[in-house]
Amino acid sequence: MMLFTEVRGLPVLSADGDRKLGAVTSLTVDASSGVVSHLRFRAGRLRGETVLGWEAVRSVGPEAVRVGPVTAPDVVPPGHDLLGRRVLTEMGVEHGTVLDVAFDPRSGRVLALFTTRGELSAGRMTGLGDHALVVRAG
Q1: pLDDT at position 69, please?
Q2: CA 105 to chain CA mean position, Å
Q3: How far apart are CA 100 and CA 72, in angstroms?
Q4: CA distance linking residue 13 with residue 29, whole number of Å
Q5: Which residues contact 6 (CB under 8 A, 6 or more apart)?
Q6: Regions of the chain with pLDDT less than 50
Q7: What is the pTM of this model?
Q8: Which of 41, 86, 98, 124 is the most exposed place for a label (fewest CB within 10 A)?
Q9: Can you give the pLDDT at residue 73?
Q10: Could you tell me if 24 and 7 are in contact, meaning their C-beta atoms sit under 8 angstroms apart?
Q11: Model confidence over 9-39: pLDDT tens digits?
Q12: What is the SS3 string spanning the chain?
């Protein structure tokens, strides 16, 4: 298990570790399936963000993220970062703000959400948009 806050800022290296490609800026989650779908990183402040599908990630560890061939995905989803995102139930009831997200670094499966109002099961996520993360009431 790893936390999003542990991954943010890690160096992104080529699969063989020979080249530093940038630093992780965020992980994109597909809320309906509950998995990390994309890795986002930047090579420098003035450089654009690179987006890779999670399938390009070879390993995630405490020191670095290693990625396979760097090819942009056909469809790039919006970069809605879960960290700091407002949480609402499907009925519109406020459930705080996301402080961190626990996930399996091998599969990308989201395990839990830690909010300002406590822990939420990842299985409660239903949608993620510009305004908020939507979770099932419960």
Answers
A1: 79
A2: 11
A3: 27
A4: 21
A5: 62
A6: none
A7: 0.90
A8: 86
A9: 63
A10: yes
A11: 999 999 887 899 999 999 999 999 999 999 9
A12: CEEHHHHCCCEEEECCCCCEEEEEEEEEEECCCCEEEEEEEECCCCCCEEEEEHHHEEEECCCCEEECCCCCCCCCCCCCECCCCEEEECCCCEEEEEEEEEECCCCCEEEEEEECCEEEEHHHEEEECCCCEEECCC
> Which is it for strands 35-42 and 118-121: parallel, antiparallel or unpaired?
unpaired
pLDDT of residue 84: 95
Amino acid at 20: K
CB count in 10 Å sphere of residue 73: 14
Task: Mention every residue, 6+ apart, whose C-beta is less than 8 A from residue 15.
Answer: 58, 66, 67, 68
- Pull the structure tokens for residue 7: 């991954």
pLDDT of residue 79: 75
Residue 8, both tokens: 């943010």
How long is the chain? 138
Tokens linked to 29 = 């989650």
